[in-house]
Amino acid sequence: MVTDPVLLQATADLFPNGISRYAVGGLLVGLGTVLIYIGTGIPAGASTFLESTLSYVSDQYRFQQYVGSRDWRLVFTAGIILGGLAFAATFQSGLVTSPLYQPGTTGQLYDIGGVTLWITDVQPWRLFVGGILVGIGTRIGKGCTSGHGVCGVGSASKTSLVGVLTFLTVAIGTAQVVAALGVSP
Amino acid sequence: MSDRHPLFKPLIFVGGIVFGFGLGFSHMARPEVVLNFLQFEDLGLPFVMFGAAIVSGIAFAVMPRLLDRAPLTGDPYERRLKPFDRNVLVGGAVFGVGWGLSGICPGAAYASLGVGNVTILWALAGMFVGAYAQGYWRSRSQARDTAATGTD
Question: Considering only alpha carbons, which residue of chain A is nearest residue B133?
């Protein structure tokens, strides 16, 4: 165990919510990916869903190339939403507690039918404009945080490592500039 | 596609649930927590991404040695390797600006809806608009290139 008070204080400053919720959550994200990979051989990413779902409403070639996977990608996304709800109904609602889980203080909690739900304070225009750029960028850049960040990095793909380094660096710069301009939350 | 194994979609569904639960548990479904990382106020995020990458990486390395083909699809186990070109940098940079502005990425946005964050529909709407815009533009430029070079 770390007992040096200076080091302990530094750790508390850098990780105000500890690291266990992040590490455990990451293991679960990895486990979900692995379950699908073991059964199907597919290293699934989340952002292709955007284009594959557009193939239901558009004849453009870019979307039609995903017709073969659009049904299971819809199922994958439905699972992710339900997984979020399962988390809300257990840990977020306080029904299940663990020393590995830090609830945190971001956003607003509200209650529907005994389930504690959560809503963001981040302004809608940031989500919408940011979302547009995420939609363009992940598709041109061949992947997102799960495709490049989890599956690609897990594959030791140089393309994905460069992709992650690029979006991480640019995102840090962007968030710092936006915060410096006084935009909050 | 029609002769898929009956357990194919159920497994994808269960995998998605575990994946989404992990995004909820790690608070990646909360844009504030991602923004706090990008502003160096809480450095937990890499534990999520690299934790997940390590777990996946073990399966990507081990499965091809254990089995020739995935039981539900008959497909060989392959790693996720994509060719590198300028698009990886351009797209990555555009994604980075969007992620840094909004604090949300696609998988986390789906999970965010699940934890009750209806406001995230703004981000999801934006993502569909963005994906449509680039797909429309790239489909057209591809059709134009094909027409220009003639018969391929």
Answer: A136
Q: Which of B8, B25, B77 to mutate to test the interface with A (most CBs of A within 10 A)?
A: B25
> Is the domain of A51 the same as that of A84?
yes
Q: Along the 152 residues of chain B, how does pLDDT read in single tens digits? A: 557 899 999 999 999 999 999 999 999 999 999 999 999 999 999 999 999 999 999 999 999 999 999 999 999 999 999 999 999 999 999 999 999 999 999 999 999 999 999 999 999 999 999 999 999 999 998 888 877 765 44
- Tell me the residue range of the domain where A138 lies: 122-185
Name the token pair of B148.
């220009």
Yes or no: say if B123 and B109 are a contact pair by the CB < 8 Å rule. yes
Which residues is A109 bridged to in the sheet? A118
Q: Do A93 and A184 belong together in one domain?
A: no
Q: How many domains does chain B have?
A: 1
Q: ipTM of this model?
A: 0.96
What the block records as the tokens of A120 is 């963001």
Which of B45, B72, B93 has its CB closest to that of A170? B93
Please answer yes or no on whether B22 and A153 come within 8 Å at the CB atom.
Answer: no
Q: Please, are residues A78 and A49 in contact by the beta-carbon 8 Å criterion?
A: no
**Number of domain units in chain A:** 2
Q: How does strand A115-119 pair with strand A108-112?
A: antiparallel
Does residue B49 sit within a domain?
A: yes
CB contact under 8 A, B127 and A50: yes
